Amino acid sequence: MFDEMDEIAQDFDDQIRQARESAGLSQKDLAQQLNEKASLIRKLEQGNSLPSDDVRTKLERALGIDLSAGGSTDETEWSGGSSSGEYTLGDVVERKD
User: Could you give the number of structural domains in the chain?
Assistant: First the structure.
């Protein structure tokens, strides 16, 4: 279920605000364009609320932005174990006897 969902960027609030301001839109104007409430736009820009998938899609299309988390964070995929790409519990757990 969650495999299909992209993670949202940590700075989604700043991205939304900057894109809206660059487009010359007020929060109310953007909300009307998206058929959403201005209070939702305010909460998103303050980082007090995460956008639903539907709202996220609307924002990305309307503002021409990508709110998915990029690969530039400190998080890196773990690599190791067998060369076949399959791991067992023994590959990642160190046993204490």
Answer: 1
Instruction: Tell me the C-alpha distance between 7 and 65, whole Å.
Output: 15
Structure confidence by residue, pLDDT tens digits, 66-84: 998 764 434 445 455 445 5
SS3 at position 21: helix
Is 8 within a domain? yes
Are 22 and 7 within 8 A, CB to CB?
Answer: no
Q: Confirm whether 20 is domain-assigned.
A: yes
Q: What is the pTM of this model?
A: 0.65
Which of 22, 20, 27, 24 minimizes the C-alpha distance to 43?
27
Q: Look up residue 46 and give its amino acid.
A: Q
